[in-house]
């Protein structure tokens, strides 16, 4: 079982305290429903990871931890095997005591594309929606956030996060909760909210934007990253059964359409701050994620198209204020 008691104690003392009216029951219910053998195996791997007090941590430029004395080869191999029990690792990378978790995604590249465009995170309470293993939560802490909360309902990602947190010395500034945005009450409490790689997985993108808005303080900032297409205002791609082999892709807007959606939901100061095609160097197979990746999802004869014939992935970052 994962113990969320430390998180309850932290939010009892800040403006998230009203969340305690529903959160413990929600998490208790989630834990009852996630009792399959794999979850217990992942928890067992976390249990057997060593409790290390890092001598040096860098969360500003990367997610890196070092010990005063190098770990022995045997210790590194044991930690590596315990972490590989939690494959696939999709978001990272992590550099821990000489062990490099080379994840499918170079999530650090995404962070570098947006960090210079967003409001300062110093002493802020922030939320990362669909946070996966929580890589960006640590970068938010490195950028000065007082508390970084991630939500993602997948049990694997919770376990990956807890494994990294243990290896970082049980840092209590970041927490991952196995919930979706639809499970949150209207908290109106976060200074900055990140929704990265989520919108196109939502049947109703506008409902998702309203849900995000309901979590922000007045004047708070939304940082939204999503797939986009090249197109005019009011244009969006609604793929068939699959897009780049993903089943649950519903709407991919043009940039003007995305800006219009944000404005229609009542956000102000809306602007796009970055647009980048996803490269084969940014998303790829590694020894930590050995199943198919982007190279397998594109037309081998025309890398500007997905295997289904749609435009290849282009991602844009938008910022907006409540």
Question: What do you see in this structure?
Answer:
The protein has 322 residues and is α/β, with parallel strands linked by helices. The protein has one domain: 3-Layer(aba) Sandwich (Rossmann fold), CATH 3.40.50. It is 29% helix and 25% strand. It contains ten helices and 17 strands. Helix 3 packs parallel to helix 7 (155-167). The mean pLDDT is 97.
Low-confidence stretches: none
**Distance from first to last alpha carbon:** 37 Å
Count up the domains: 1
Oligomerization status of the protein chains: single chain
Structural class: alpha/beta
Q: What's the CATH class, please?
A: Alpha Beta
Number of helices: 10
Helix amount: 25-40%
What's the helix-strand series? Answer: HHHEEHEEEEHEHEHEEHEEEHEHEEE
Topology:
Blueprint: H1 5-11, H2 23-33, H3 37-48, E1 56-58, E2 64-66, H4 73-84, E3 91-92, E4 94-96, E5 99-101, E6 105-106, H5 107-114, E7 125-129, H6 135-142, E8 147-151, H7 155-167, E9 174-177, E10 190-196, H8 205-213, E11 216-228, E12 236-237, E13 252-253, H9 255-264, E14 268-277, H10 294-297, E15 298-299, E16 302-306, E17 314-321
Parallel strand pairs: 2-4, 3-6, 7-8, 7-10, 8-9, 10-11
Antiparallel strand pairs: 1-2, 4-5, 11-17, 12-13, 14-17, 15-16
